[in-house]
């Protein structure tokens, strides 16, 4: 649909009924038909540089057809359900003022998902920049947390002992030692995962990298668009809630990716003396 200039949407007199299609020829209308149509109240309004005009039945058809066009095919189902209700409300209106008001509300919501794409790009860009700004500080904190557990494990009485050599006392200490090793492993995974994530985020330097992403960022962006839109809609346009959602999801997404791509044994301490 061309939005660079005003357009008048005109739909032909063609209606589909199940498997039958009936075409109506404008030229065969009688003079009385034309006069009757002229006497009907015609309405007109414009939205997004597109003009809608005609009688209420004609406008109903125009709104129905435009909502079913390919431009709006990607609208999430929950939004489509809402739009069905809004369109039904439009079609219930008989007074010109109320009809126009309801139609404009419907059109605003029809375009909402398309409008959301720019908001989504901005929100994703903002949280990536924010995360990048904090990465060095977070990396230091994660390394410190890992080292604390590493030292605890290294100093534990069971460190270096074979299970077959455990004494009765050792066996009593074993559950806590096992839990300690698990926590040390988790902290190491988070440390090396964060460092891998840092290398990935280093590639995102411009807004264009976010608007037209590739690789993992493209996968993340596509996977979270619908949920992000739903959160944005339900929060009545609260961008902070959208950004909070994206921040949590993107960290979790990259962390889980790192588990299959990074070898934790290859880590190096950056900030704390190994001894």
Give structural notes:
- The chain is mainly α and 275 residues long.
- 64% of the residues lie in helices and 7% in strands.
- A three-stranded mixed β-sheet has the order 1-5-4, covered by helices on one side.
- The longest helix is centred in the middle third of the chain and has 44 residues, at 112-155.
- The chain starts with 6 loop residues before the first strand and ends in a 16-residue tail after the last helix.
- Residues 1-28 and 34-39 have low confidence and may be disordered.
Count of helical regions? 9
Task: Let me know the largest β-sheet.
Answer: 3 strands, mixed
| SS-derived structural category | mainly alpha
Radius of gyration: 31 Å
Give the CA-based shape.
elongated
Beta-strand content bin: 5-15%
Weakly predicted, low-confidence segments: 1-28, 34-39
Mean pLDDT score: 85
The rounded distance between the terminal residues' Cα atoms is: 67 Å
Number of strands: 5
User: Helix coverage percent of residues?
Assistant: 55-70%
């Amino acid at each position: 649909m061309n939005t660079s200039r005003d357009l008048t949407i005109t739909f032909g007199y063609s209606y589909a009924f199940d498997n039958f299609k009936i075409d109506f020829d404008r030229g065969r209308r009688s003079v009385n038909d034309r006069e009757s149509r002229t006497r009907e109240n015609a309405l007109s309004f414009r939205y997004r540089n597109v003009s809608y005009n005609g009688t209420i039945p004609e406008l109903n058809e125009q709104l129905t057809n435009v909502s079913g066009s390919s431009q709006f095919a990607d609208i999430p189902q929950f939004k489509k359900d809402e739009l069905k209700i809004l369109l039904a409300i439009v079609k219930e209106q008989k007074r010109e003022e109320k009809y126009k008001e309801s139609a404009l509300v419907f059109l605003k919501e029809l375009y909402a998902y398309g409008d959301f794409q720019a908001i989504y790009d901005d929100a994703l860009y903002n949280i990536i920049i924010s995360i990048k700004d904090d990465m060095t500080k977070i990396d230091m904190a994660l390394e410190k947390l890992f080292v604390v557990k590493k030292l605890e494990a290294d100093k534990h009485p069971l460190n270096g002992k074979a299970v077959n050599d455990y004494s009765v006392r050792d066996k009593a200490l074993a559950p806590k030692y096992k839990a300690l090793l698990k926590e040390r492993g988790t902290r190491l995974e988070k440390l090396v995962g964060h460092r891998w994530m840092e290398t990935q985020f280093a590639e995102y330097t411009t807004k264009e990298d976010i608007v037209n992403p590739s690789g993992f960022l493209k996968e993340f962006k596509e996977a979270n668009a619908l949920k992000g839109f739903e959160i944005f809609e339900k929060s009545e346009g609260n961008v902070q809630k959208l950004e909070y959602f994206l921040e949590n999801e993107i960290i979790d997404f990259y962390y889980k990716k790192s588990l299959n791509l990074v070898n934790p044994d290859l880590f190096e301490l950056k900030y704390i003396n190994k001894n």
